[in-house]
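Example 3.2
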Amino acid sequence: MLGDRLRQLATTNPAAITDILRPQPVFANGQQRGYRIYPGRNRSQFNRLGLLPGDLVTAINGTPLDDASRGMDILQTMNTASAVTMTVERNGETVQVNVNNAQVAADAAAAAALPEAIPVNEVPDPSGDSAE
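Structure, written as tokens:
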């Protein structure tokens, strides 16, 4: 039941992935190699996924990201799949990064439910006195 609820969150908040990462296409000799990724607005979630700024994603779920016309479509499947495996080139090595989209959506929903922090200099003085 909890798994179904997390999948529902992923479905109702398809932007959760794009809030976390920003993809930029990478070409070499006129051929697309993949997408270099950088943190989106939710930098902490980006880091929790095991990603590093500048990672080059070359495949998602085994499908190469070497075709510009379908590359963004494949990246968008990250929004609807319950889990994604990304093949990443990092520092000259190829690594696999597993992303649990249901957890991403749950974390995004939890973060959205938290009240915004009030800067310390804007917290009202409980005594009503002003130090000015």
